[in-house]
């Protein structure tokens, strides 16, 4: 399905030290095609490389987060994974691990692949009237973009199993109660609340924040916290963080009973 040439599939806005990336195919509820996957993946990658960007927010334009994969293109056997970077996975984001913290600002609905994009983010804010779902089984297909893999890690297993096997929607209230999202926002304000959360993160030194995030993700594949591999990774990252100028300033400011002066 072709887009008007004047309409980029992804919008990029810099607000202070936060990048706000908006999916922009509102005519089809931001359903994801190859062009959008490429643009989204590139936008996230470029923001992650920018030292002035501390947090990346993903959201949807036109009132909805994302309607998932563009099934018209799937049915036509068109490629919906970025041809440039297939290793980044669905949407150019579900297998792209960034050092920069990411927040999903969920508005309207996040269906199928749309929820998978949100699940790939580190944190999530959701409008109180929004909902999310993995409806793939109702169409005889499979949530192959990380939905099944990640949902069961974020909410109780039996609740995840019900959501996956029935395709039933998850309301904002349920999402908050189950731990699927961090905060709810009044209707239409998910980006604003996500920006507040981003500010809470960005006031802390970048090395400590980014390395803490990476340790949480990279240690997921380990078994017990008693395993030696677990502690080897932990110690390597601790050495990196504790040798940084920010760590020295943080400890010195504590001793001197003053606020730390982080160098941006």
From TrEMBL:
Entries under CDD domains matching the protein: crotonase-like
Query: Which molecular function GO terms apply here?
Result: catalytic activity
The protein's name? Unannotated protein
For this protein, the record's InterPro entries field holds: ClpP/crotonase-like_dom_sf, Enoyl-CoA_hyd/isom_CS, Enoyl-CoA_hydra/iso, Enoyl-CoA_hydra_C
Q: Which organism is it from?
A: freshwater metagenome
PROSITE patterns attached to this UniProt entry: ENOYL_COA_HYDRATASE
| Gene3D superfamilies tied to this protein | 2-enoyl-CoA Hydratase, Chain A, domain 1, Lyase 2-enoyl-coa Hydratase, Chain A, domain 2
- One matching Pfam family, short form? ECH_1
Describe the family membership recorded for this protein in Swiss-Prot or TrEMBL.
Belongs to the enoyl-CoA hydratase/isomerase family.
């Amino acid at each position: 399905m072709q887009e008007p040439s004047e309409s980029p599939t992804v919008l990029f806005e810099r607000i202070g030290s936060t990048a706000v990336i908006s999916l922009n195919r509102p005519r089809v509820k931001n359903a994801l095609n190859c062009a959008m996957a490429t643009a989204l993946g590139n936008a996230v990658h470029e923001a992650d490389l920018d030292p002035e960007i501390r947090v990346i927010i993903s959201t949807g334009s036109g009132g909805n987060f994302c309607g998932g994969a563009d099934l018209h293109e799937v049915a036509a056997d068109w490629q919906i994974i970025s041809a440039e970077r297939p290793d980044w996975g669905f949407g150019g984001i579900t297998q792209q691990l960034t050092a920069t913290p990411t927040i999903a600002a969920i508005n309207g609905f996040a269906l199928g692949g749309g929820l998978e994009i949100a699940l790939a983010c580190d944190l999530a804010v959701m409008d109180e009237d929004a909902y999310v779902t993995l409806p793939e089984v109702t169409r005889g297909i499979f949530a192959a973009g990380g939905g099944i893999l990640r949902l069961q890690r974020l909410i109780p297993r039996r609740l995840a199993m019900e959501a996956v096997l029935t395709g039933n929607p998850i309301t904002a209230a349920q999402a908050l109660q189950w731990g699927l999202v961090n905060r709810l926002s009044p209707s239409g304000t998910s980006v604003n609340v996500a920006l507040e959360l981003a500010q809470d993160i960005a006031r802390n030194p970048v090395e400590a924040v980014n390395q803490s995030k990476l340790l949480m993700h990279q240690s997921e594949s380990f078994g017990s916290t008693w395993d030696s591999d677990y502690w080897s990774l932990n110690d390597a990252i601790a050495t990196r963080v504790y040798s940084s100028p920010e760590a020295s300033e943080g400890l010195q400011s504590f001793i001197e009973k003053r606020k730390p002066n982080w160098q941006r």
